[in-house]
Specification:
The chain contains four helices and six strands. With 111 residues, the chain is α/β, with parallel strands linked by helices. It has a single domain, classed as STAS domain (Transcription Regulator spoIIAA), CATH 3.30.750. Strand 2 (13-22), helix 1 (27-40) and strand 3 form a beta-alpha-beta unit.
Length: 111
């Protein structure tokens, strides 16, 4: 598997930590993990992207859809620690403006 993800709870926050490449072949797996995070979270879901080495348009679409799902559940979705290659996809498409993006997990967890 080219992508794995850990899920852990910190208070009302659920942290999802994907590791590997997020693309067409792995998007269904991460979709299930993110939906579970939304079900478990009380306040917000943080996606710790520090070990996410690649994200294509299907991955970006998943994150956009997850943001909408989180909003419907009255939760915040925060992205943390975007690697330069992943951040570039956000910049080129202009979607960085719709996400709450923090420099690292510590910044994302700070209240």
């Amino acid at each position: 598997m080219r992508l794995r993800a850990d899920l852990r709870t910190r208070g009302g926050t659920v942290v999802v930590s994907p590791v590997g490449e997020l693309d067409y072949d792995s998007v269904a797996f991460l979709r299930e993990v993110l939906l579970e995070a939304i079900r478990q979270a009380a306040e917000r879901v943080v996606v710790d992207c520090r070990d996410l080495s690649f994200c294509d348009s299907t991955g970006l679409n998943l994150l956009l859809n997850t943001r909408a799902e989180a909003e419907r559940a009255d939760l915040a979705l925060v992205l943390a620690g975007l690697q330069s290659s992943v951040a570039r996809v956000f910049e080129v498409t202009g979607v960085q403006t719709v996400f709450d993006i923090r420099a690292d997990l510590g910044a994302a967890l700070a209240r």
